[in-house]
Structures are given as C-alpha cells and as structure tokens.
Amino acid sequence: MKILGIGSRINHPEYGKGVITNVSSKEYWVTFIENGLETIAINSEFEVIDAAENEVDTISFYDVEQSLLSMLKKWSDISEIVPIGDKWKGGKIILEPGQAGLANKEIPVDTFFHKIIMVRDRLRVMEQKINASSIEEIEKIELQQYITRIYGSLTTFNVLFKSQNDYFVGEKSK
Fold this sequence. Notes:
This protein is an alpha+beta fold. It has helices at 61-75, 109-132, 137-153, and strands spanning 9-12, 16-23, 27-32, 36-41, 47-50, 92-95, 105-108. The protein has a five-stranded antiparallel beta sheet, with no helix packed on it.
C-alpha cells in the first residue's frame, strides 16, 4: 500500500471530500470540506481523487511543533493548557465581606483558575532560572525550599484541577 503525501485529495465515504494536511505512521490528518479536521487510519476505505507524492519523513510537522512547544514551555513563561474540573466550569466564587453594608464580589471560577495557573507557571520559570543561575549551591537550595513551601500553600486549589497530574505538591510531612 502506497502512503499518500500531504496535499493529496480524497473522498471519504463518511466525511466527504478533503485534503491530507499531515501524515503519521498510522493515520492521515484530513481537513474535510464539510466536516473539518478528522484523523483517519491510513488503511481505511476512501477514494483517492489526486495523489501527491509522499515527501513526509518519519517525523511529522505535528511532532516538530510539539517538540518546539515543549522547549518553549521549559524556557519561557508560556502557559500550558491545564483543564479545570468539569464541575467548576461556568461557576463563580462569591466573596462576602464581614462588614455590613458592603457588596459581595463575584469572580468567575475560570478566571480565578487561570490566575492560579499563571502563578504556578511563573513559579516554575523562577525555579528553572534559579537552578540555571550561578549563585551558590546553598542559596539555590534555600530558594528551592521557599518555592516548595509556596507550592504547599497552593495545594488548597488542587480541588479545581481536572487531573491529579496537574496538582500542586508541597513539602511532604516527615
């Protein structure tokens, strides 16, 4: 079976006409006229309207893009997409003053969550910059301990995360 290259046009029985925009070892990424982007198995049934030469290496554009994003996340303050727990989507936080006569303040949970993620991302960048700096090792350790305690203080907000993999983790009890 010959693998089609990027730019090949196909007609799929379910999705209709489309153009192959990426190729991996197991599937084509096809942008269909009426159904948008879909991935289909290379060996699935479809009609080839116009075959482009397969000039794709074993590394796809997607793989290169993911590697670049990984490096940018590691060395800049670019934020990764961290999903909020489904039960909190569209919710709000209500701050009620203890002093009579003052109005409540409502904050969308999504906005609050985004701010927490920004704090976490900036802490990570600070941590990386400290580790890469030329300051004394003992100072690095002390600063790392402060950062770990900050993460520990932020564990209260773990309830907002969809995945436990994204949780804040502080110093473990001894």
